[in-house]
């Protein structure tokens, strides 16, 4: 272990910087190789009010990393000849229904997120109810052809495992996976008994807007969870045991968990995925990608108040789990990436990489955004500044707002946070034409610069004027969103700042997103005094506030 001491020191430095920069309440990390646990480290608080620190035995909800456990249970039943991965779901759940003009959905499609079904409305309680409600939705692409991440799909798989295994889902995960892997501290489902050992979860203080600098947080709502898409709570050391089984291709300490053939299916490149600037493949409950000449498998997780990331370097037999009890805006993945770079360098007697700089507001292409932007009148543009004046100062992008210079913080491609109350509800986004920046958007407001050559007025159905506004759900799993009319079309803006265009289907119904294969739908109703009071987003109910 002496060879890794420098690794642990640098990793500590990076994590401590990340926690300060992103205001992360608590964290636990474990590193492992194929044979043994290399390191466990803990940081911050499991309960801030009680000043209870995170300890090695503190439980964290692992969220969607649980999908790999569900996939393993399905593969075990397949090996036993009790189910067929390519048979329709209705063979195992005769009451399952979904609207579709395509071939039937199979377990294979669900495990690889290629069923073409909605992500899910996250009904809490018995997962069979959410599976039942899918009859109100439509599969919008031929199964196996289109990747669309679906928690609902893994809820279906959990129910199938119960039906075929003839036991409650939690008992199946316990006896088939946790016990053979000697994961003695892990709970297969999240109940009130789990809460006694669980870190307190925290969420962003503001539920209706992008997190401001400093990222204040508040205690998250406590929830029980028993469904196959994210029901597990674990410790870093237990998750290291799980990763060792994956590094060893299905071999556990007491024998095989799944066969080599099953592991090849699980880690196979079923469907290519391109999203958020990333390119990877999805198998069965695992993401697969290559980087720096190494092959990786892994998965992220997010629950109300908890975030996690598991990453395994299969080429070098190394793994890391990062568990957090608060939002970190991608910190878990950044920590995992850096940790494996450190471990790999130490393993090959190479110089350790330096700790990356964090919290940078540098904008290398700041000059591309500089200029004067004039607001275009829009029916729903609301109050705000008529002019945006942006100046490039070296590698900084500065907004001149009145007499105040405001340095913009990058939050994604062509996307920035403006640290001023007038801009707090939305991110500032820029649009390009033939590679040049020509327009800017802030919520309902649209601004153009002198390079913009397109139309400035747009026709649209007057009925759409009823839809803009702020909608929220009292289900803690569902986020606030706002609808704005922009350039004659409705746009959905999530609290995180992410945006999706709405495409009219019929009447008050819209597809979410430009991709014609998207199954996500939103419908507005209860129009009173020219305003929609209710929106149904893929079976989830939201109400105007």
Attribute tags:
Beta-lactamase, alpha+beta, globular, 9-stranded antiparallel sheet, 545 residues, 4 domains
Quick overview:
By secondary structure, the protein is of the alpha+beta class. It is built from 9 helices and 32 strands. Strand 26 (481-486) and strand 27 form a beta hairpin.
Descriptive notes:
- This protein has about 550 residues and is α+β, with helices and mostly antiparallel strands.
- It has four domains: about 1-65 and about 170-345, DD-peptidase/beta-lactamase superfamily (Beta-lactamase, 3-Layer(aba) Sandwich); about 70-165, no CATH class; about 365-450, no CATH class; about 460-545, Lipocalin, CATH 2.40.128.
- It is built from nine helices and 32 strands.
- The chain has a nine-stranded antiparallel sheet with strand order 3-2-1-15-14-13-12-11-10, with helices on both faces.
- A hairpin with a 4-residue loop joins strand 2 (about 35-45) and strand 3.
- The longest helix is centred in the N-terminal third of the chain and has 18 residues, at about 5-20.
- Major sheet: order of its strands? 3-2-1-15-14-13-12-11-10
Dominant shape: globular
Count up the helices: 9
What does the largest sheet look like? 9 strands, antiparallel
Global mean pLDDT:
95
What are the low-pLDDT stretches, counting only 5+ consecutive residues below 50?
378-383
| SS elements, strand count | 32
How large is the radius of gyration? 24 Å
Assigned CATH architecture of the largest domain: 3-Layer(aba) Sandwich
Termini distance?
A: 56 Å
CATH domain class of the largest domain: Alpha Beta
Strand content: 25-35%
The CATH superfamily of the largest domain is known as: DD-peptidase/beta-lactamase superfamily
- What's the helical proportion of residues? 10-25%
Per the CATH scheme, the topology name of the largest domain is Beta-lactamase
Structural class: alpha+beta
Number of domains: 4
């Amino acid at each position: 272990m002496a060879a890794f001491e420098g690794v642990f020191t640098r990793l500590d430095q990076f994590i401590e910087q990340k926690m300060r920069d992103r205001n992360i309440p608590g964290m636990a990390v474990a590193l492992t190789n194929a044979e043994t646990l290399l390191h466990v480290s803990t940081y911050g608080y499991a309960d801030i009010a009680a000043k209870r620190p995170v300890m090695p035995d503190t439980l964290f909800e692992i969220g969607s990393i649980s999908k790999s456990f569900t996939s393993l249970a399905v593969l075990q039943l397949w090996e036993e000849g009790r189910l067929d991965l390519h048979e329709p779901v209705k063979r195992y759940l005769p009451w399952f229904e979904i609207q579709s003009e395509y071939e039937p959905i199979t377990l294979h499609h669900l495990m690889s997120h290629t069923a073409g079904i909605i992500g899910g409305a996250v009904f809490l309680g018995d997962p069979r109810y959410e599976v039942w409600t899918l009859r109100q939705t439509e599969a919008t692409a031929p199964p196996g052809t289109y990747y669309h991440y679906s928690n609902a799909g893994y809820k279906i798989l959990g129910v199938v495992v119960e039906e075929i295994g003839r036991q409650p889902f939690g008992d199946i995960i316990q006896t088939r996976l946790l016990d053979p892997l000697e994961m003695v501290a892990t709970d297969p489902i999240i109940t009130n008994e789990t809460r006694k050992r669980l870190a307190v979860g925290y969420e962003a203080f503001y539920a209706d807007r992008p997190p401001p600098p400093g990222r204040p947080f508040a205690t998250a709502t406590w929830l029980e969870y028993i469904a196959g898409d994210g029901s597990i709570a674990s410790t870093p050391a237990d998750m290291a045991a799980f990763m060792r089984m994956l590094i060893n291709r299905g071999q556990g300490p007491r024998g095989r968990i799944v066969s080599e053939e099953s592991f090849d299916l699980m880690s196979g490149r079923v469907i290519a995925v391109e999203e958020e600037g990333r390119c990877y493949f999805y198998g069965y409950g695992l993401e697969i990608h290559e980087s720096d000449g190494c092959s990786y498998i892994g998965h992220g997780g997010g629950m109300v108040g908890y975030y996690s990331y598991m990453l395994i370097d299969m080429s070098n037999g190394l793994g890391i789990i990062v568990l957090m009890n608060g939002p970190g805006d991608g910190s878990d993945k950044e920590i995992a990436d850096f940790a494996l770079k450190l471990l790999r360098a130490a393993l090959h007697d190479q110089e350790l990489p330096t700790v990356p700089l964090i919290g940078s507001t540098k904008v290398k292409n700041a000059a591309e955004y500089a200029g004067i932007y004039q607001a275009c009148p829009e029916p729903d543009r609301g109050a705000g500044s008529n002019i945006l004046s942006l100046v490039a100062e070296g590698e900084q992008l500065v907004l001149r707002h009145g007499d105040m210079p405001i340095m913009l913080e990058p939050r994604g491609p062509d996307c920035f946070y403006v640290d001023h109350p007038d801009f707090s509800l939305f991110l500032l986004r820029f649009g390009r034409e033939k590679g040049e920046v020509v327009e800017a958007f802030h919520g309902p407001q649209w601004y153009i610069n002198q390079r913009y050559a397109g139309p400035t007025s747009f026709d649209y159905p007057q009925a759409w004027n009823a839809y803009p506004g702020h909608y929220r759900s009292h289900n803690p799993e569902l986020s606030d969103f706002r609808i704005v009319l922009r350039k004659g079309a409705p746009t959905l803006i999530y609290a995180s700042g992410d945006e999706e265009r709405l495409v009219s289907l019929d009447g008050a119904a819209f597809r979410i997103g430009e991709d014609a294969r998207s199954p996500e739908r939103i419908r507005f109703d209860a129009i009173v005094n020219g305003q929609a009071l209710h929106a149904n987003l893929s079976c989830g109910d939201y109400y105007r506030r």
